[in-house]
Structure formats: structure tokens, C-alpha cells
Amino acid sequence: MIHFYCVVETSFGDINKSTINIRRKYISKMIKKFFSQTAIKVLILTILSAGISLNAHGHDGEDDSGATSVPGLPACQILSAARLFDGINFPEDNKAVLIEGNKIKQVGTLAELSSSCANQLDLGDSTILPGFIESHAHITFQNVNKDTVLKHGITTVQDTGGPLMAVEGGQGTLRLLSVGPIIQAVGGYPLNIFGGGDGGLDQIGIHVASVAEAEQVVTDLVTGGATAIKVALEPGGESGAPWMQPHDGPVPATPWPMISQDIANAIVAKAHALGKRVLVHVGENTGFERALNAGVDEFAHIPCAEISEDLLQRAVDQGVTFVTTIDTLASCVDTATGKGIHSNTMSLASKGAKFIYGSEIGHDNVPWGINGEELHAMLHLTSGESIDFTDVVNVIKAATSKAGEHLGLAPLGTLTPDAPADVIAVKGNPFEKFKILEYPDLVLSGGRTIVNNYISELSEEKINCFFNWAEGKYSEALAPAGAATQISGIYSYRYYSGTKAYLGVSSADYHLYYMHEEDGELHDQGLLVNWLPVSECN
Asked: Of all helices (H) and strands (E), which one includes residue 354?
């Protein structure tokens, strides 16, 4: 069975997306039926490996999330806006960024950069920022659609618990950094809550019972592409914790089995010897202290239960980094004492702890993209008695440059020279209102445009210029050249009788579509804005 990904259009400008598996014969029949109607109702968003493809550059590997193909990169592009934040310095007014291929080249004024590239887009009263980095997600385990995450401003994800995956993405698709399954005790968390039998490299957890087993698992994970190692030191019992809620069955009685100190030490030592960071899931004092004794690098959550002040200070002294996930764990409060994740966060902040942004994408109570509420919680819990603009900037840094540094991938998360051209933009000022970051108006991944809400219209001249170029470039697929451009509803298209092919542009999403009449498969070739510089129709 071939997997197709459909967009069902219920009305002009109102598109409801779903991922479904359907039979090729049925879709062919439907496409042929609807192509002659006022609007095309079913659009197939997959490029098959066989047959003609208009893509100038393909992608290595295969993305099961249904990511749309994108064309080759423009040689250069300049984005200018009322504000620009480079991930490091305070945002600056009236700045532009020059992108060459898939890398950032330079930030400056439009006047300074204009002569370097003719392909320019003025975003007006908007703010340009680096793409955000999500440092705690469960994309693979929860089967989260990677396109959805990318379109909502997250360009890089650290996938912290699930089937082991090789590093992927970054060139028009979500960059995914997998840590693989969580190393745990036999009978312990997370397999005891989320299932997965005996665990393994394709599950959320993998159990170990000795130092030798632990060292071998770490080696296997690193060999398989893990960018870090994650271990669970979780005996359970924390008030309000999501893992204390029923999932695949009743919550097991606590305390749960937990990895011994010797095994925890061995995991960290082996991972460090192989050049990998160690993340830890802990929720209370016993696991917290065991993690510190082992020398972990990162707490994947701020713990749910109240942690002693001495242990919190020790964590800060050891330079451990904390991923926030405050929003999704907001119920982690002991009703008797009022203490929990919020008091832990404030205490850590007062001691000078290092925080990076994480929202735990994959949970159903947080957005599958940038989470404005998480940013808001970080600001109010880490800023002390008063909030100034530096505090606001530091929160955004925790999701951009600071996260890139912690991952060891700097200058990822910045708009500095040679950084990956992962860029987002929003209309307005997100330093005044975090919420608007959840719906970015522009998203670039590796220089390729994924979202562009700044295109208000496409001129007939540009569309015809592109069609003419495509006829010359792909003459074997689009013949005879010189077909008349027709308009049907939201589509401008040409039909090529010699090759029985259609080439069209939708004014609803400004994507380019190609279809061969015989197979009835409509291929989404990505945003036309990506093709205009390639075709010299800009």
C-alpha cells in the first residue's frame, strides 16, 4: 500500500488537513473527476520516486510525516523587517538578513545588503528571528506530524524518548535529533507506564540490569545515531505528575524499580567517553541526588516534587542545565505544601541556574509548535521580583542561541554568519506578546520557504514567466510549449495536450502543483516563492 497524504478542501481558503492511506486507483479516479470542476477538491501531497519530478534537488532518506517536497535553493535572498533578533543581541530596528543558499551570510541594514542580492522580501512591521529549538519532545513515539511542528516555528527538535532515529532534516524539513529510548531499570519507568514489553531500540524505554548491560546499551545507542543519552531515575509518586495518571492500564504501585547508583555512574561515564551528553528524567529528591552523583548534564524536566534547597544549589554548582516543560507539568504541585515545579523553578532561578526552552511536544495539552504559554511561564518564574527587557530577551535566547550552544551545534539558533538559514518571522513584536510566535507568518528551513503569509497575490506576469521557464526546463514533461494559461476557481494552470500534463498554481496556498493525466496523481512542488528565484522570474 502506498501512503498518500491528502488535503481536502472544504471551501476556498478553508483547508482541513488530514493524513490518510488510500488506494491509488480510487485517487486517480477522483482526481480526474474533480480536475474539471471549479475547484480541485483533493490534492495529493506526495512525490513518488518513479516518474517525472520537478524538484531541482531531492532529499536524502524518507520522511514518514508527509513533508511536502521543496525545490532547489535560490542562490541568495534578503529579508528585511522593522525588527530583527539575531539570537544573541537585543533586537534591532530596521534590519535585514542576507541568506546565501542554506546559510546565513550577514545581518545589516537593507541599504548595506541590497547590492548583494536582487531577490528581496520586505516584511514590513514584522520581527525576524532564528527558528526555535524544542529541547524536549516525543515526536517519534507520539507520531507527531513533523510538518505541523515546522510550520509553527520549531525548526529543530531534540526527541527525548522513543524509537532510535538517525539525525534527519534541516533542509526544508524538521531537523530531528534523536536520543532514542530511555535507559531504565527492569520493571521501571517508562515501560511500566507506556508499555512496550521488554523494551528495545524501537520502544520508548530499554532496560538494563548491570553495569555491563548499561555500557553496551549506551554504545548501541551512539552507534545507531543517538545525539545524547537519556536515563530515567523515577520511583514515582509525585502529586500531579502526568506519569502518575493511567495510560495503558492502572498506575503500578510505587516505589518503582530504579537504576542503581553504580549503573547510573557507568551510563554517564560511557556516554561522556563517547562524546555524548546525558539527560535524566527525575521527579523527586532520591532520583535527583542519584543523577547529580552520576554527573548528568541535563535535567529533561524541572522536577515535579519539591526538591531540597541543598540539592538545587548543588545542581547549579555542577553546571547542570534544566529544560523547562513548565506548562505541561503545571499540575505538579503538592496540595498540602503548595510546593512543586513552580517553586523549584523560582528557587533554581534565584541560584543562577541555566535554563533552556522545552515544551514537550507530543503531549496533548501543549501546542505542536512554539508554545507561548511556556515562554510566559519561564519569564514569570525565572525573572525574580521584577521583569525587565533583558529577562524577556533571555527567554527567547533559551529557545534559540542558548539551546543551540547546549546541543553543541552553535551557531544553530542564531542569525550569525554560517548559521543554518532556519528563520521565522511574525507580524508585530513578539517581545511584547509571546503568543504571536505560535503562528509564524514566515518559516524558512535551510533557506527553503515552508510558510510565507506575506504573499498577498501572485501577478499574472510572474505566473506566466514561471510557466514559460518550466516548459523549457522540463520540455519532456510539459509539451507542447506555449499552452494558454487558464483560470478555474483558485487555480491558474496550463494543460499540455502532448504529454497529458497539468501545471498549476493555487491562490489559496501559493503552491505549485503538477499532475499527469494518466495516473491522476497531483504532486505538490512546494511554495511558488521558492521557484521564482530559480526560474529568474522574481
From this structure: strand 354-356
Least confident of 293-297, 391-395, 526-530: 526-530
Residue with cell 501577478: 459
Cell of 67: 513533508
* Grid cell for residue 510: 501559493
Cβ–Cβ < 8 Å for 78, 84 = no
Question: Which grid coordinates are listed for 251?
Answer: 498506575
Backbone angles phi, psi at 526, to 5 degrees: 90, 180
Judge contact between 164 and 180, C-beta under 8 A.
yes
- DSSP per residue over 524-535, as a string? EEEEHHHHHHHH
Cβ atoms of residues 274 and 218 within 8 Å: yes
d(CA 525, CA 254): 53
CA–CA dist 171, 155 (Å, integer): 10
The residues, any chain, with a CB within 8 Å of residue 308's CB and separated by 6 or more, are 285
Alpha-carbon distance values, 538 to 231, 321, 465, 495, 534 (Å) = 51, 45, 9, 23, 9
The CA distance from 489 to 375, in Å, is 41
Grid cell listed for 195: 508499555
Spatial separation of the C-alpha atoms in residues 394 and 379, rounded to whole Å: 9
Q: And the C-alpha cell for 233?
A: 531515575
Looking at residue 519, its amino acid is D
Cell of 504: 498549476
Among candidate residues 201, 214, 337, the one with its CA nearest the CA of residue 273:
214
Q: Closest Cα partner for 437 from 392, 402, 396?
A: 396
Which residues are CB-neighbours of 386 under 8 A, at least 6 positions away? none
Residue appearing with cell numbers 514561471: 466
Residue pair 274/222 in contact (Cβ under 8 Å)? The answer is yes
Average pLDDT over residues 126-154: 97
Poorest-pLDDT segment among 54-68, 115-129, 478-492: 54-68
Whole-model pTM: value is 0.84
The H-or-E segment that residue 81 falls in is: strand 76-84
Class of residue 102 by CB neighbours under 10 A (exposed 0-12, middle 13-18, buried 19+): middle
